[in-house]
């Protein structure tokens, strides 16, 4: 968390203030607002910022969102929302990432609408040739200049501060499932991976580890001795990562609830009483994480699990998600009760269904409770998008206070730009659909632009039943994502890699991941400290290549790598576009692979389920470690190299990656061997 003003004088950013915005905390260095507006946008009578788009212009950004890498052709809204049906018709997902990059005919620039409330982006939806942006509340607009898209992002990242860097072990593979109920289930997963000779670094604890879904408690029947279990797992190289939910159970005698009520640390209704909603535990209240004192208090509660030997967390349901408010539920139940015994023609039946449909995440309920902020009491509705960010900040600030030099794993479902300094994100409740594999790929560069580097999706899909081929293909993409976690929901097909028939290929894929960890970790830290994107659209690296602008299913990764995963069922391979001559690496395992130079242009490549194919630009080298059962067991002194063309050296971050201070001395320039011809 290094949010100082470094490089301030070099920032190529202009700030314009509209009204008196609520400070979101997104920006890490203060810059003075300009008096005179001089942006590329025009402000129309509806208060929309408009910009004419030429046919070749591309609009990038918006972080976690549906649809393309190029966001043209659809409308989006930053309004953090818990809705697990992620289809193309959605306009908002779990995060608010109001940064776009416009690249095209007249050059390139970035625009950040720093607003606590909703921002609407109509990117050629109403009028294909026009971009329209409207913030519903006061905001700061930052216009970011640069010679290229890469440079614009770098400048923007200086403005918003350094991205969170997790411990190195968090680059291992993690297994999760909503449905592991007790210690025996956790041991079964650990044993399953070990017996199948597959590596594993993390097992996630979903809500069932808690006592009646009470935050910071452990169910003693299911987990009689969590500390001993965590210690035992750690000996095996596995960390346990518990979930923490936003809703705190209302229950007499539950210390966290009682303490929070006594101190006034929960969000309150208009009468000043804790506002009660229904979430997992039934009646629940939300910690007022926008109140610095309450935030400090909530953050300090993570200590309860740290004391059990826990070193990482995932924060969930922090849009915050509401199943119902007490008031609304009472009204709906009355309506339902009044239908008892009556004939139900269509309209009435739909009326009942409709009323039930208004229960969850109702904006009217978000207007019913308030935060005590340093800027006065504000309605939740006006700062809704900040909740998940501040909940995660609560934890990160506590970790910093408790163990200033230690790196903890922390990621969240809901987020806002600014949270990238405190933790990573996973992209929420996707499904076991092939389209979501591709969506996973498309979100990566968009998230990176907004500062979120430690990112990943639920591999194999969260909702619905996965299939072996989907999980194989998705894992083959997942080996490149910093957060690599297989997660699924209750009552779906068990999804752990060792449960499938082709164990050998899963073992090989995970082996490739572990062989790549020294590289992935190094590329990650370099991206984080230099303000670079680890994942980039092809057009960012090849701005003059018209064709590259249209590629929506390949990405540049780190320095010089390109990925082109297979994302269709029963596909025997795929077309890959090479903007220049590159080396193709075709891996069956981390030690069994072929290297072939391919010319620039289109290639149809056969890629069976058992192979992973990726590409290395000339002048680059890729270190490979010997696969190991966990990240801590990797030997980074014994590296094999894949070299493409003339590459002299590789900048590698070495060390166990557990402390923050280590980073200052961990960068090595390694000499690279000659290319094997
Ligand atoms: C939410 C989370 C999901 C988790 C479930 C139960 O749906 O997004 O990952 O498994 O809650 O906690």
Please explain how this structure is put together:
This protein is 24% helix and 25% strand. By secondary structure, the chain is of the alpha+beta class. A hairpin with a 3-residue loop joins strand 29 and strand 30. Helix 5 crosses helix 11 (387-402) and helix 13 (468-478) packs parallel to helix 14 (503-530). The model is unreliable at 1-8 (pLDDT under 50). The structure holds alpha-D-glucopyranose. Alpha-D-glucopyranose (GLC) is lined by residues 178, 206-207, 243, 316, 413, 428-429, 487, 489.
Distance between the termini: 44 Å
**What compounds sit in this structure?**
alpha-D-glucopyranose
**What share of the residues does DSSP label as strand, in percent?**
15-25%
Apparent shape: globular
Overall pLDDT, averaged? 96
**Widest sheet, order of strands:** 25-24-22-18-14-13-12-27-26
Specify the biggest β-sheet.
9 strands, parallel
- Number of H/I helices: 15
Radius of gyration: 25 Å
The secondary structure category is alpha+beta
The total beta strand count reads: 39
Question: What's the helix and strand layout?
Answer:
Elements: E1 13-18, E2 42-43, E3 49-52, E4 58-61, E5 74-77, E6 95-96, E7 99-104, E8 107-114, E9 119-123, E10 130-135, E11 139-145, H1 149-160, E12 173-175, H2 183-195, E13 202-205, H3 226-235, E14 239-245, E15 248-249, H4 255-263, E16 277-279, E17 282-285, H5 292-300, H6 303-306, E18 312-316, E19 324-325, H7 326-338, H8 346-357, H9 363-366, E20 370-373, E21 376-379, H10 380-383, H11 387-402, E22 409-412, E23 415-416, E24 424-426, H12 434-449, E25 455-456, E26 458-459, H13 468-478, E27 484-486, H14 503-530, E28 535-536, H15 538-541, E29 555-557, E30 561-563, E31 573-578, E32 582-587, E33 593-598, E34 601-606, E35 612-617, E36 620-625, E37 639-644, E38 649-653, E39 667-671
Parallel strand pairs: 6-23, 12-13, 12-27, 13-14, 14-18, 18-22, 22-24, 24-25, 26-27
Antiparallel strand pairs: 1-11, 2-3, 3-10, 4-7, 5-9, 7-8, 8-11, 9-10, 15-17, 16-17, 16-19, 20-21, 28-29, 29-30, 30-35, 31-34, 32-33, 32-35, 36-37, 38-39
Helix pairs in contact: 5-11, 13-14
The protein binds alpha-D-glucopyranose.
């Amino acid at each position: 968390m290094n949010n100082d003003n470094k490089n301030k004088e070099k920032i190529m950013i202009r700030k314009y203030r509209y009204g008196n915005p609520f400070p979101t905390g997104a920006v890490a260095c203060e810059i003075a607002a300009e008096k005179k507006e001089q942006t590329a946008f025009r402000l129309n009578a509806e208060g929309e910022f408009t910009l004419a788009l030429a046919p070749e212009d591309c609009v990038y950004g918006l972080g976690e969102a549906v649809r393309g890498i190029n966001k043209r052709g659809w409308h989006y809204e930053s309004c953090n929302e818990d809705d697990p049906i992620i289809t193309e018709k959605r306009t908002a997902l779990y995060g608010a990432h109001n940064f776009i990059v416009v690249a095209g005919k007249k050059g390139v620039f970035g625009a950040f609408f720093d607003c606590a409330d909703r921002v609407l982006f109509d990117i050629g939806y109403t009028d294909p040739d026009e971009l329209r942006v409207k913030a519903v509340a006061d905001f700061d607009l930052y216009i970011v200049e640069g010679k290229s898209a890469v440079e614009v992002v770098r400048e923007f990242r200086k403005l918003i501060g350094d991205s969170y860097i997790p411990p190195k072990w968090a680059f291992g593979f993690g297994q999760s499932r909503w449905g592991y109920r007790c210690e025996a289930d956790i041991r079964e997963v650990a044993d399953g991976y070990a017996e199948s000779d597959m590596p594993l670094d993390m097992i996630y604890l979903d809500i069932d580890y808690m006592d009646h879904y009470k935050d910071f408690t452990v169910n003693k029947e299911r987990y009689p001795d969590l500390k001993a279990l965590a210690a035992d797992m750690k000996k095996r190289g596995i960390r346990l990562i518990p979930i923490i939910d936003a809703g705190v159970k209302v229950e007499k005698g539950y210390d966290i609830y009682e303490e929070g009520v006594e101190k006034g640390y929960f969000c309150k209704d208009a009468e000043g009483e804790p506002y009660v909603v229904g979430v997992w535990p039934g009646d629940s209240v939300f910690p007022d994480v926008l109140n610095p004192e309450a935030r400090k208090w909530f953050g300090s509660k993570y200590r309860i699990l740290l004391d059990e030997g826990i070193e990482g967390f995932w924060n969930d349901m922090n849009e915050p998600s509401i199943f119902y408010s007490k008031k609304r539920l009472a009204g709906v139940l009355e309506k339902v009760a009044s239908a008892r015994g009556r004939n139900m023609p269509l309209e009435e039946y739909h009326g009942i269904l409709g009323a039930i449909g208004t229960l969850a995440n109702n904006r009217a309920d978000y207007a019913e409770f308030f935060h005590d902020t340093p800027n006065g009491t504000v309605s939740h509705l006006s700062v809704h998008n900040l909740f998940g960010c501040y909940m995660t900040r609560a934890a990160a600030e506590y970790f910093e206070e408790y163990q200033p030099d230690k790196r903890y794993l922390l990621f969240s479902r809901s987020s806002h730009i600014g949270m990238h300094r405190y933790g990573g994100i996973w992209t929420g409740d996707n499904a076991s659909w092939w389209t979501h594999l591709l969506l996973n790929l498309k979100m990566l560069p968009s998230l990176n632009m907004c500062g979120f580097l430690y990112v990943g999706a639920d591999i194999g899909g969260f909702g619905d039943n996965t299939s072996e081929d989907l999980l194989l293909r998705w894992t083959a993409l997942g080996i490149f994502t910093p957060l690599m976690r297989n997660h699924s929901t209750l009552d779906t097909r068990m999804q752990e890699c060792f449960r499938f028939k082709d164990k050998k290929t899963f073992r090989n894929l995970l082996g490739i991941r572990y062989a790549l960890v020294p590289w992935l970790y190094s590329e990650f830290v370099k991206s984080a400290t230099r303000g670079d994107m680890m994942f980039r659209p092809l057009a960012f690296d090849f701005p003059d290549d018209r064709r590259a602008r249209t590629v929506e299913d390949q990405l540049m990764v780190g320095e010089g790598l390109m990925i082109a995963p297979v994302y269709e069922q029963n596909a025997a391979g795929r077309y890959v576009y090479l903007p220049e001559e590159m080396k193709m690496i075709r891996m069956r395992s981390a030690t069994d692979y072929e290297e072939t130079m391919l010319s620039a242009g289109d290639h149809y490549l056969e890629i069976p389920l058992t192979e992973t194919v990726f590409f290395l630009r000339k002048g680059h080298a890729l270190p490979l470690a010997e696969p190991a059962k966990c990240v801590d067991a990797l030997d980074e002194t014994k590296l094999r190299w894949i070299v493409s063309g003339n590459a002299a050296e590789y900048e590698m971050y070495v060390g166990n990656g557990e402390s923050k201070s280590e980073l200052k001395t961990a960068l090595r320039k390694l000499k690279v061997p000659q290319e094997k011809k």
